[in-house]
Specification:
This protein is an all-alpha fold. The protein folds into four domains: 97 residues; 293 residues, no CATH class; 94 residues; 286 residues, no CATH class. It is built from 18 helices and no strands. The longest helix is centred in the N-terminal third of the chain and has 86 residues. Keywords: Coiled coil.
């Protein structure tokens, strides 16, 4: 029997062993004929339960939707932080809106379910009160009878439970006695195994020698070995054995002397062999008796076990019955306080209740029976689950009994083996007392006898192998059990030394010594002294950067205020300019006619034709300009050569100026005149570059002239003499100016025709744009008149600026954009440059169709403009020239002040 289990601190080891697989005890369901109609009370309970389940599921869905909404809201906030992905923002916004809508729907359904639950509760309360008030004396008698029957059943169940407990205790005692007997058998078997281990080695050696000798004698008897081979073998054997034989002879001589002495002493011991034989016979008889007695005992034990098995089966069936009775008992005990309350209510209602109808009594009786059956089923299932845990011990004891039967069978097999081994050992001991020849004969007889026995024992080998495997399996299980117990003991005997050591270390860390604290304080002080200057520097830099940022912020704030004020002024001026327009449109309030629309369509067709013709003309002009450039390539080359010669002359002038730095200190007026001439030359060169943009030599000449002018300004402080050389220099510069003028006159004539063509093209484009703008102005005027006609009931003059209608206020973006300008503020036209151009006669008729007040609109100073590409390039060039001249004048003024 295994040692008793001790409670372990590990909860995984406290679980009971698994019992044998058996069908669980389930109560037989009580079939009720459902012929009766539905009871409203039970129906109300089922509706209440269904609504509660629905509310629970809705709550779970609501929680999941809330989590999803929170996640979508967080992602939406992140996406709003990154405004470069508007599609993500829309997606997450839509997801959050969907979650919000679903949550709203779930809230509405949950409210409906709550109202339903409250209604069901009210109905059940009313039905319960009515059923209690309508109970009768017949129901009271039935309930009393049922209570008495239940009490009787509880008493019977208690008695059966007491009997079952007594039976279980008796079975446990019998199992303990059987386990003790099995333990005694095991101890005996262990002793016999220890005694037989020494004999098995000798028996194996004798069997091997006997088989070898038998094989050799069989070969000699059959004559398989030839004579020559046998002679050779004998010679080899004799050669090998000769020294041993001599040694043996020498030993024999010594032994003969000793044997003579022993024989003299052995005379009184001659009757001992007969006594030893008699003792051997007695030992064999005793062994046979022991084996027979062991076999008889095991057979008896096996019969006892076979007789115990049906009793155990009967006990299991009785235990099942007891479980059922105990379940009923527990249900009755659980229903005890309920029945007591029912009795109290019945006693209270005896005097105050009238006799009800029979239908209500039957309905209440059925309801009580169904409730009772439902409660008994649940409590019976709980008790069965509890009883299963208790029955594991009984199943373990049955398994142990079965294992003890297997152990007895194993012991029988081992006893049989020991009997055969002992008999062979006795024969071997008797054979050892004879001489070598007698040993060979005895070995032959022994081999024949063993072979005969093996033939008889051949059918038993398979059974022995099976029992051997079972024995090894049992030994392995015992080893595992011992290991588990050893692990449990180790787990229970764990010491707290490492915990105490860790606590000591933690205490030392929490409360260090004074020396450690002083060292740490010194280290921290040193680190502070090292890091304080760097921190001070960082603070200074941070304060400086903060001041810079503050100043920048103030500057930007001032600029923003200026911009806001400027925009406000622009807004006020626009409002002032727009007032006559609103007045004029309010006065007219006319809609366009069908003739006007037809005229607009015809004009648009003409404009399209003109635009197509202009596009063809521009393509022709471009091709002519390209051909002209290709044809005048030689003139460009000559101009580049001339410019190179001029740059060479300028280099010579630079050298002359360098020589004059040491001598010239007078005549600042001449130098000023020279600077003026240089400015004129620079203007001429800029004009040349504006007409001849492709020549890099001209730009280099211009830069060289600028450098020369700068150096001449530097000479203003140093030139004090040599007026003759300066005059000569002035004359040379005049000559250079004349040459440049000639170059300009020669090459500008070539470009005049090209400029004329471009101007005509620009005028044609401007005419087309003017016509388009005029037609758009008409359309916008019509739309404004319609808007004003719709708002005729509200006078415009009486409205403030903030309350103007959307059709009257200036719009930020107009729906129509032209290639020249964007039409803004209702029917306003963009301000054109004050430049007279020749217009075709058709535009005058179109201009005459405009309202009389359009001249005021065109002349308003606050309207936006848009330039053509040619005008924009010219304006940029003029701005650059003006900036360069202003910088040169500033440098001249500085040099004059230095002089």
């Amino acid at each position: 029997m295994s040692p008793p289990r001790q409670p372990s601190r590990d909860p995984r080891l406290n679980r009971g062993p698994p019992g044998p697989s058996c069908t669980p005890l389930r109560p037989t369901p009580i079939r009720i004929q459902d012929n009766n109609p539905k009871i409203p009370f039970v129906q109300g309970i089922s509706d209440l339960v269904n609504s509660a389940v629905k509310t629970g599921s809705l709550q779970a869905e609501k929680d999941t939707l809330k989590k999803g909404q929170e996640l979508a809201q967080g992602l939406l906030q992140k996406a709003q932080g990154q405004k470069a992905f508007p599609s993500l923002i829309e997606y997450f916004q839509q997801a959050s809106d969907e979650h919000r809508a679903k949550l709203g729907r779930l809230e509405e359904t949950s409210r409906d379910l709550r109202s339903q639950i409250e209604q069901h509760e009210r109905d059940l309360n009313n039905q319960w009160t009515t059923s209690i008030s309508s109970s009768s004396r017949v129901d009271e008698k039935q309930l009393q009878d049922e209570i008495k029957a239940a009490k009787d059943e509880a008493k019977a169940a208690k008695e059966d439970a007491a009997q079952a407990k007594a039976e279980v205790s008796r079975l446990t005692k019998s199992n303990q006695s059987m386990e003790k007997t099995l333990e005694d058998f095991r101890q005996r078997l262990e002793k016999m195994e220890r005694a037989s281990t020494g004999r098995t080695a000798d028996v194996k050696y004798l069997l091997e020698t006997s088989t070898k000798l038998g094989a050799a004698f069989n070969k000699l008897d059959s004559g398989e070995l030839p004579v020559e081979v046998t002679n050779k073998l004998c010679q080899n054997v004799t050669a090998r054995i000769q020294p041993q034989i001599e040694g043996v002879k020498h030993l024999n001589t010594k032994l003969d002397a000793r044997v003579a002495k022993v024989e003299e002493e052995f005379v009184p011991l001659k009757p001992l062999p007969s006594k030893v034989d008699d003792i051997g016979g007695l030992v064999q008889e005793h062994a046979k008796k022991l084996t027979q007695s062991n076999v008889d005992k095991t057979v008896k034990l096996y019969k006892q076990i076979n007789s115990v098995v049906p009793r155990l089966q009967d006990m299991t069936s009785r235990l099942e019955k007891v479980e059922a009775m105990a379940a009923r008992l527990e249900t009755v005990e659980a229903m005890g306080p309920r029945l007591d309350t029912v009795e109290v209510k019945l006693d209270q209602s005896k005097n105050s209740v009238a006799v009800p109808n029979g239908s209500s009594l039957s309905q209440t009786g059925l309801a009580l029976e169904r409730l009772r059956e439902f409660a008994t089923k649940q409590e019976l299932q709980i008790f069965i689950d509890f009883q299963k845990a208790k029955d594991f011990d009984v199943y373990d004891e049955l398994a142990k009994v079965q294992s003890s039967v297997g152990d007895v069978q194993k012991q029988l097999d081992t006893l049989k083996d020991e009997h055969s081994q002992r008999s062979s050992q006795v024969v071997a001991l008797q054979a050892d007392s004879t001489k070598f020849s007698e040993q060979i004969a005895a070995a032959k007889a022994e081999t024949t006898r063993i072979s005969d026995e093996m033939k008889h024992l051949a059918p038993m080998t398979a059974l022995q192998q099976l029992w051997g495997t079972m024995n090894t399996f049992h030994q392995n299980l015992e080893g595992c059990r011992v290991g588990m117990h050893s692990l449990e003991t180790r787990y229970n005997s764990l010491s707290t030394e490492p915990v105490v050591k860790s606590m000591v270390v933690a205490m030392q860390e929490m409360y260090p010594s004074a020396g450690q604290l002083t060292d740490q304080v010194a280290q921290l002080r040193q680190r502070l002294e090292e890091e304080l200057p760097t921190l001070k520097q960082r603070l200074d830099t941070l304060s400086e950067t903060e001041n810079d940022h503050f100043n920048q912020w103030q500057h930007t704030a001032a600029q923003r205020l200026d911009d806001i004020n400027r925009l406000r002024n622009d807004h006020t001026s626009l409002n002032h300019t727009l007032t006559p327009l609103w007045e004029r449109h309010a006065a007219e309030r006319k809609l366009p006619s069908e003739d006007d629309v037809k005229n607009l369509r015809t004009e648009l067709g003409l404009l399209r034709e003109k635009l197509s013709s202009l596009a063809s003309q521009t393509s022709e002009i471009k091709t002519q300009s390209n051909l002209y450039k290709e044809g005048n390539g030689k003139s460009y080359g000559e101009l580049a050569e001339k410019i190179q010669t001029l740059t060479a002359e300028l280099q010579g002038l630079k050298d002359a100026f360098k020589e004059m730095k040491s001598t010239n200190k007078d005549n600042s007026k001449i130098v000023k005149d020279l600077v003026g001439l240089v400015d004129k030359l620079g203007d001429g060169l800029t004009e040349i570059t504006s007409t001849n943009t492709g020549n890099s030599a001209v730009t280099t000449l211009e830069t060289e002239l600028k450098k020369l002018g700068d150096k001449s300004l530097e000479l203003m402080s140093t030139n004090t003499g040599n007026s003759e050389t300066l005059k000569a220099l002035e004359m040379e510069l005049k000559k250079l100016g004349h040459e440049l003028a000639e170059v300009k006159s020669n090459h500008l004539e070539n470009f005049k025709s090209h400029d004329k063509d471009l101007k005509t093209l620009a005028t044609n484009i401007d005419d087309v744009e003017d016509r388009v703008l005029e037609t758009l102005e008409k359309k916008l005027a019509d739309t404004l008149s319609q808007a004003l006609q719709s708002n005729a009931s509200q006078p415009i003059e009486s409205q403030p600026e903030d309350e103007l209608p959307a059709a009257v206020l200036p719009r930020q973006e107009s729906p129509v954009e032209t290639p020249r300008s964007t039409v803004e503020n209702g029917s306003l036209l963009p301000k054109k440059k004050q430049k007279k151009r020749l217009r075709p006669s058709g535009s005058e008729d179109e201009r005459s169709s405009l309202p009389s007040g359009s001249s005021n609109l065109v002349s308003s100073p606050q309207l936006s403009t848009r330039e053509t590409p040619v005008e924009g390039n010219r304006r940029k060039k003029r701005k650059k020239k003006g900036d360069a001249r202003a910088e040169a004048r500033k440098e001249d003024a500085i040099l004059i002040e230095d002089d």
